[in-house]
Amino acid sequence: MITGYVAAETAFGNASLAMNASDPALVATSVDPALSQNRALLTVEKGTGVTVRGHQDLGQPVVVAYSATRAVVHSCEPGPGLIAYGQDGKPLTTSLGQAANVDVTAVMVPGPTGTWMLQSGQDKVVPLCPD
Length: 131
What we know:
The chain is built from three helices and six strands.
């Protein structure tokens, strides 16, 4: 599950840096609704001239719930992380443009090949990540 989570987060991070909603790694690591939501976000960002820069640190993800058909992974990703910039070169005023710690809860499901894939996720900016 952790391997699937890391693969999905890394795929989205790389697709964000390249502004590539068609990155095959997204399909290999995510299912709907996360896949469609992430592709839509990347398409809108690319269309409005957003760029993403930075380095992705996935923190120390842990499985907090598990069954044969669903797992929940939690991590706190320490900032500054990936930051989105507008056409003017300034960071966006939304949470995507903030150098911040991000608390992530991800729902993972088994994929067709048996690997765990991202189904949904929730991100929240937090003041600190625990040690």
